[in-house]
Amino acid sequence: MKSIGTAIAEAKCDQVGIVISGSSPEYLYWIALDAPRPGLRIEWITSNSATLKLQDPSFVPCAVICESCGGDDHFNNLIKVQDNGSQQLFLEP
To answer: Which of 30, 37, 41, 75 is the most exposed place for a label (fewest CB within 10 A)?
Structure first.
């Protein structure tokens, strides 16, 4: 199985959403995505009503990294391409 960073790079995706717990080490994803680099944007995706108003509506991810998402989770038109049990990767078809 490809690494998450490799799969996102091969998809030529530079708008990445993350859905992880507050105790997860986010910096590991930044390293896997070779951040910081020009053009790369990484944003948290949350359903917490207190923070929804802070999300930028112009952000449209072409990839979402999700920790422990259920089988029915989806993100707009993205499809699940990897699932190792604790991490899932959703990409544009």
So the answer is: 37
Q: Residue by residue, what is the 3-state secondary structure of the chain?
A: CCCHHHHHHHCCCCEEEEECCCCCCHHHHHHHCCCCCCCCEEEECCCCHHHHCCCCCCCCCCEEEEECCCCCCCECCEEEEEECCCEEEEECC
What separation in angstroms does the CA of 79 have from each of 11, 39, 71, 74, 75? 13, 23, 11, 7, 8
Query: Going by CATH, does the domain composed of 4-91 fall within 2.60.120?
Result: no
Domain residue spans of the chain: 4-91
pLDDT of the residue at 8: 96
pTM, entire model: 0.86
What pLDDT, on the 0 to 100 scale, is given for residue 20?
87
